[in-house]
Amino acid sequence: MIRLNASEPGFSTAFDTLVNARRESDAHVARDVQVIVTAVREQGDAAVEAFTRKFDGHALNETGWRIEKSDCAVALKGLDPELRGALELARDRIAAYHEKQKPADSDTIDADGIRLGARWRAVDAAGVYVPGGRAAYPSSVLMNAIPAKVAGVERLVMVTPTPKGEINPLVLAAAELAGVDEVWRIGGAQAVAALAYGTGRIKPVDVVTGPGNAWVAEAKRQLYGVVGIDMVAGPSEIVVVADADNDPEWTAADLLSQAEHDPTSQSILFTDDAGFADAVAAAVDRQIGELATKDVARQSWDANGAIILVPDLPAACPLVDRLAPEHLELAVADPEALFAQVRHAGSVFLGRYTPEAVGDYVAGPNHVLPTGRRARFSSGLSVLDFMKRTSFLALDEAGLQKIGPAAVALAGAEGLPAHARSVALRLRR
Amino acid sequence: MIRLNASEPGFSTAFDTLVNARRESDAHVARDVQVIVTAVREQGDAAVEAFTRKFDGHALNETGWRIEKSDCAVALKGLDPELRGALELARDRIAAYHEKQKPADSDTIDADGIRLGARWRAVDAAGVYVPGGRAAYPSSVLMNAIPAKVAGVERLVMVTPTPKGEINPLVLAAAELAGVDEVWRIGGAQAVAALAYGTGRIKPVDVVTGPGNAWVAEAKRQLYGVVGIDMVAGPSEIVVVADADNDPEWTAADLLSQAEHDPTSQSILFTDDAGFADAVAAAVDRQIGELATKDVARQSWDANGAIILVPDLPAACPLVDRLAPEHLELAVADPEALFAQVRHAGSVFLGRYTPEAVGDYVAGPNHVLPTGRRARFSSGLSVLDFMKRTSFLALDEAGLQKIGPAAVALAGAEGLPAHARSVALRLRR
């Protein structure tokens, strides 16, 4: 963890270093992924089988390629009632939030009598990647699958690795609750490639979303264009802006809720009170020791954590914009004033009773958010990621007479005579 | 050009071949681009200068790196009045269409007293790539720059190569009309890399859009994630669905309006009338000979053109969906019935008086559209490409008491104790 003071000389350079630090994967991952993707494109099922044997340690032809819908239903029935209630609350709230994202079609006739519009439709099929093994993330299943189903995707495919054949019932239960249509027990770059290109067994999809390790993220990046993807995902981040009226234990817990994800995660506190900064630092150190995830949290906090003292909290806002964090907590009495000064963040948590973790699970907004400063230009996962817009246009003869000559002039100026002729022929009649 | 008949045996295989034919760039382009992008990231201006000298044949330190706003104003003043009028009509109509795309923010309080919302903001800076040299595309300047300005982008940067130093005044005039803020006389993969990473002279941008050759398209693909991009663009395509009541000369002109773009462009006609198919084929052959662009159009039509006879026009719709074309003309008396049966197309042109070229220039919808079957999952360029959404959430103590316990349960099940604690600490008070 580093401590910075915005009022001290050298801050600007130190903050630049923090902003520009790369915490993402290397060239060797890209090369590995290229080999895997090419093999799956060329050899289909055989390549998927071989990579699964190698990386996940089981033979698909023995363990089975698919997990049946009936297995998902069984997993849901067997769920602890409290957990089932929590998942159902999450599902309902996530669905309600995402329903409001559904875009409206347009269809208007303008003053020249020209009809113009846009029509939104769901993609035919989407694939959701869900990490497997011991770390089970039913919340990821909900956050990826529900927007797809709200969009109207008819074929929703889930892929999830089952290392050594081990299936996670929580993930299956969440798939059942979210309405997933097909589940394949495959993972890694090979699963992303199978979804993108299709194989003998697996029909291709149009969009692939969902979190994964560096290989999965790189596979999505390489296959972008063959399929649509949600985003290039990197390590998780939280920025907390907090004054001294917060309980330092709460703030410390919030910082650790990102640090425990991965050694490459990043947690940053901005505060205007040096004593509060000290108290949070002490609370973080104490709380880490109590966590089952302490090894990961310690590595993350030591390597990437930061506490930054600012002269006043509004002074934090332009610095927050430089970081463009995935998650931003504004833990102050009047968060609205600060929120108005921030331009770049994936998701913002307003006030002292809105810990980021409540948004990770049940509040409703999506927890799939831009990382690595990408909130400058990209947005969290939404219904729009599973839809596409077709624009349309209808002119009658009178409309073409009005605007066609301008098209002829511009086509001529661009040296495209067939463009000009296709309009001019119709003007002549 | 190939002729297919949907009623004949072997059609399915032949159509599959047509759908799956790759017309895009090769691995050697990817390798070239990787070298250029890495050099620009590491050496900045010096690399841009060297590649410009090599590929564009002029020395930026002599010809100048920038084109001043005053030069754009001069170009606009010097424009032929008819052309200026055409550009202004285009600008106004494009702006009017894109204004309607501006997304609404949301901010609601639900039944549990939990505040949920989403806020849209423009990116800070966007870069528009405009091809240069003899082929000048002022329409591309408008189609890329206007959505950015409608979105509210404050710094809009245009890059355009000036081979051998030659500047195209039409492009500058369009930049002035569209409100471009900075113009740099650079192109190729090096220009895209300079926009993405920034150099000593050029500040980085957040989003890069605009058409270009295979190297430009590949540079955008490789830099996706460092910046936002509009899409991976491939060769242009048109599909025309037409009955025998059309003038074959009009249909032929429409097919050629795509064929003249590039030897890799593709033009496909679906019709239910063999005689009309023959007439269009003959008209295409005759019209090609009259075009200044005949060499390109001939190559495209011979290599990639197709005329497909279907038993009736509704039978064309599922085939159109397989192709998911960039442009689709429905040249029939009642286009609505066919439009309702098509799911995948970038932009649709309804009726006999709506040639695609009128949409390329002046109608209003964007002409930057998904190619290479990507209309299955992606959309034409829009205001949304220059904006991003920040979700937000605000709970009070009562709200957290309602939904917090479910978050604690799910965090526990996912093995993330710091997530659980950040909520549980606040529930205890």
Q: Can you characterise this structure?
A:
2 copies of one chain form a homodimer. In chain A, 58% of the residues are buried. In chain A, strand 3 (106-109) and strand 4 form a beta hairpin. The first copy, chain A, has 3 domains: 27-102 and 121-229, Nitrogenase molybdenum iron protein domain (Rossmann fold); 234-376, Nitrogenase molybdenum iron protein domain (Rossmann fold); 395-428, Single alpha-helices involved in coiled-coils or other helix-helix interfaces (Up-down Bundle), CATH 1.20.5. In chain A, helix 6 (81-99) packs across helix 8 (169-178). With 429 residues, chain A is α/β, with parallel strands linked by helices. Chain A is 47% helix and 16% strand. Strand 14 (347-350) of chain A pairs parallel with strand 15 of chain B.
Oligomer: homodimer
Number of helices of chain A: 18
- Chain pair with largest interface: A-B, 124 and 124 residues
Shape of chain A: globular
Helix content of chain A: 40-55%
